Amino acid sequence: MSLRHAILTLLATEPGSGYDIVQHFKQSLGYFWNAKHQQVYQELRRLSEDGWLACQLDAQSDKPDRKVYSLTRAGLAELQRWQAEPAAPNKINDALLVKLYGGALAEPDNLVGELERHRLTHADTLTRLQAIEQQYRALSAAEQAQQRLPYLTLRRGILGEQAWLAWADEVLAELKGA
After folding, report:
1. Alpha-carbon dihedral angle through residues 9, 145, 86, 35, given to the nearest 10 degrees
2. Residue 178: pLDDT band by 50, 70, 90 thresholds?
3. Pick from 6, 70, 104, 163: CA 20 to 30 A from residue 23's CA?
4. Sign of dihedral through CA atoms 139, 141, 144, 146?
5. Is 122 found in the same domain as 60?
6. What pLDDT, in 10s, does the model give residues 1-45?
7. How much is the CA Rg of the chain, to the nearest whole Å?
8. 79 near 5, Cβ under 8 Å?
9. Over the stretch 45-101, which tens digit does the pLDDT of each residue have?
10. In a shared domain, residues 171 and 139
């Protein structure tokens, strides 16, 4: 998957500025697709040059004009083309797993400390995802129906974090017992 398709996906739901897109990444897609502020703005420029986005200036009295992007017909066609092609299975590069794999060369306390630091991060992420889930559950049935597919990605995130934490607990017990 490319950043451009993530941006097109966000803009398919509603037009937005670069700032709006960056915020969406922080609040939703960022749990499974990361992009830096600068990358988003560079990609918006390229998508516009490719004819996949239209840009309208929104005048603001106290700030520079705001660029609001929306999908063009060509952008929608590209998004539909991309949606129809198979997604490659996710591959991970996880430095923690490499450290654990080669852990016989490390001090056991270092591995435990490293794992505990990662565990805190995953526990915090799980808490944030569960808070989003509670917001979803508070929606009306019609709003939930509208958000059904994003909710399913949220559930994947929750289950993934729960599995990671269960695995970490297992590894910590093994490391501390050894």
Report:
1. 30
2. low
3. 163
4. negative
5. no
6. 588 999 998 899 889 999 899 888 877 776 677 778 899 999 999
7. 21
8. yes
9. 999 999 999 999 888 888 888 899 999 999 999 999 999 999 888 877 888 999 898
10. yes
- Say whether both 131 and 109 belong to one domain: yes
Residue that finishes a domain, picked among 36, 65, 84:
84
Q: Residue 114 corresponds to which amino acid?
A: E
Asked if 46 and 14 touch (Cβ cutoff 8 Å), the reply is no
Q: What was the pLDDT predicted at 59? A: 84
* CA atoms of 31 and 17, how far apart (whole Å): 20
33/54 same-domain check: yes
SS3 assignment for 78-89? HHHHHHHCCCCC
* Single residue among 32, 60, 84 that ends a domain in this structure: 84
